[in-house]
Amino acid sequence: MVVVLVVVRVVVLMVVLVVAVRVAVLVVALMVVRVVVLVVLLMVVLVVVLVVVRVVAAVVALVVALVVVRVVAAVVMPLSVLAVVLVILLVVVRVVVLAARRDAARRTLWYLQHPGYADAFQTSGASGSGAAASSSSCDGQAEARRAVDSPPVPWHRSCAAEPAVRRPTLADTEARLRRLLGLEGRPAEQVWQWSAKSLEGSSAAAPVRYRAAVRVPEVGRTFTGPWRHSAHKAEKAACALLEEFLDSWCKEPPPREAPLPPDPGRRRLAA
Which pLDDT belongs to residue 255? Predict the structure, then answer.
């Protein structure tokens, strides 16, 4: 009897132990499942957060891009329109200037009666009659619009050219001086005496300047010209001063026995 009780107790304890083990396994399994579910939920939340962040970033980038495009368009469009307008204006001005130059050249050639341009324009009278005769003709109307007043008698055909002013040369001045002072046949050294000075430039690129002076022994005066860039021009300048003195002395050549006049007071002619 005792053995049976012991066996029963052992069996009961084993059954309880097995049940307890199974319950513990079930509890652990439930805990593991709960942990796995929590991890899965966390992963899903993280994925959703990442997706939302990426979507928000894309939306923000799109908005920023749209704002930048609109700002650039608002700034660049007026400038581009202004640039196009300026280019068009420049082209129009160039075309108008070229047309005006061509028209002015054609009118000038017509005015000068250049061959090939004598009938380029009509006079006022001819244009009136032409317009009345060909009122229905487009060519006549165009010619009438381009009509200009008739110029006076062409100067290059009927008007005599004005004689060119001849400037006295050194030989002319010497001959005049000989005639006024009665020194015909005398050596040139007794009529006038020339001297010259030269001044080097301050640099290699600066030209050399010259200054000439002429002395008239019979008058007792020296005429010094200004600085010039060539010896010939310097002599011409001094000779011009001598000519001015001779012009102030007398309008016509005096007789040989006439005395020399006093100094007229033109200090800039005297040396």
Answer: 44
* Residue 215, Cβ density class (10 Å: 0-12 exposed, 13-18 middle, ≥19 buried): middle
Whether the Cβ atoms of residue 195 and residue 220 lie closer than 8 Å to each other: no
Place of tokens 């100067």: 155
- Sequential DSSP letters for 176-235: HHHHHHT-TTS-HHHH-EEEEEEE--SSSSSPPEEEEEEEETTTTEEEE---BSSHHHHH
Distances (CA, A) of 22 to 12, 28, 208, 211, 216: 15, 10, 127, 136, 153
pTM, to two decimals: 0.34
Rounded CA-CA distance 181/179 in Å is: 6
pLDDT at 152: 46
Tens digit of each residue's pLDDT (9 = 90 or more) over 160-202: 444 555 677 888 888 888 888 888 888 888 888 899 888 776 5
What is the Cα–Cα distance from 155 to 61, expressed in whole angstroms? 81
Instruction: Flag whether pLDDT at 122 surpasses 90.
Output: no
Rounded to the nearest 10°, the torsion over CA 156, 162, 165, 166 is 80
- With a pLDDT cut of 90, the percent of the chain lying above it is 25
Radius of gyration of the chain (CA): 58
The tokens describing 109, both together, are 């050639």
